[in-house]
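Ticket reopened. Same input as before:
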Amino acid sequence: MKSSFILVVLTCVAVLTGCAGRVQPPVALDQNFWQKENPRVGVSMTSAQQPAAYLSGADCLLCLAAANIANSELIDHMPTLPAEDLLSLEAELVDTLNAQGLQASAVTDSFSVKHLKPSSLPEGAEKDFSPWADTYDYLLIVDVSMFGTHRSYSGYIPTSDPQAVVKGRVYMVDMSNNQYVLYDAFHTIRAVDGEWDEAPTFPGVTNAYFQAIESSKDNIKGLVAKARCKTCGDTAAEPAVAVSEL
Amino acid sequence: MIAASKLNVLAGVLAALGLLAACGSAQQRPTAQHIAPKVVAATVSHVQVELTSSPPLFRGALGSVEPDEANAGVLYPGGHPAAFLLGVAIHGSIVAGQKSSEASAAQTSADAVLGKWSSAITGLNIESALAGAAGLAQQTLPITVSTVGATVTGIDEAPLRLYLSTEFTVAQDSRTLTARTLVQVRSLDLSPDIARVAAPSMRSVKHLGGRVEPLDHAHSAAANSADSFAYQNVVEVMSVPRQATTAAEDISPKALQDLVTGLWEQTLVLAVDDLVGSQKDIQAPQQTFRYFRDGKKQFDRGTLIKDSGDRVSFRTLRGWIRSVPTSPEA
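Engineering reply: fixed in the latest deploy. New output:
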């Protein structure tokens, strides 16, 4: 009886410690960042190549099959939407940083975060960015893990309408010490205005998709620009109506 | 006895399947097919306007809906297919009921903003506002615009009647008023000399949807008898934001009267332009428009119709026409 109890406790401890991975708290861009003379900043964006319709909560095989069938037209529609509006963020971030007096450039295609070795340091960036330390003083990475739509299920039953989503994280690494000087996760969700089930073109869902993209881009650029403006005192107003063409 | 039992099971399965289908599908709001204009511009010289939703409905603007990600697992009863399907159906009806009550509660909460507008709404002269809007629209449009009953001289042909059904939405900061109007032309009203079917390729947008609950009746009617309309579309016009200090006080009846007149004027201009005007925006590239609503940034995808500096009008992906001021401040 006693040995069983110990076994249960040990199992619980093992499970709980196994789940407790390192959680990176948000890091706001420090003022010291702006005191460097023309730092070289590499900007890279990693993302899924095309938008998709994500379903969650349909957690049995039959539930998943039913959910896929019920959303088949949306699943087919989402990859047909252009991703350029999101992917242009890399170039826009370069422009934003250059406009603030930095030497920013897009990182070459050969750069891949997932191919970097894990960092040996107990704290700081989870990857070892030192191979790029000679080229850049800082690396700004936007990692989009999910974009498209998301619909939640509880078994067979949808508990939400599809919502546009852009999810990921943005971080900047100081190449001198492999520490984050900026880290933030973003999860932008936009509900469809009105009816969503308008196959085959899904105008409501498509509009929400572009809304989520623009909102995410604004937030990400704000993480950099806002910190810059704390120092420079610049509060340049954004034009009320800006137009981005496809 | 056995046959009766089987029949009961079958009936149970069918009922459960019916419920499941109803609950599993999307929350269907009334939608209407976007009907491209079948009236040729050159043949229309007089438009007569009639309000079908009188008095118009005023509502508080709903904020953006944050999704509820809660989706705890549910165990369905086993042992018999009917019991299983019934379990799924009951689960579906509970979820649907929850969504409905949440939407209703959100609208009730949003309507609280109408407190500062209630006395002005009570004193609103609808006929005067519509007649004023028609008169102002006529100054912009190359055709005669009048309300039903108004005397118009010098025009022999029968007017093209435009039916309007409007919902007014007050922003939560009380600074802007938005008119969302369902505009329709009935086929029955078209006299043979002005009715001519336009090329079917004029417009590719087919669906209207959106948060149009106050227009339910009109939309349902349209959906049920789409062929009886020669044209229909939704035109949404947002007013220029009022000063924050002004918006903090109750709106005066005159200010609301002017506001409603102005919104209807712009609605008429845009609708008639859409109805009889050129279709040049159809070929325009899609763009993402940024503007402010309730003091918050708003993004919309569409094609540009007109940019007049202080106001931009565009066609949404649903084919609706939306007109918004370009500045967040008055």
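Chain A is about 30% helix and 25% strand. Residues 226-246 of chain A have pLDDT under 50 and may be disordered. Please confirm and we'll close it.
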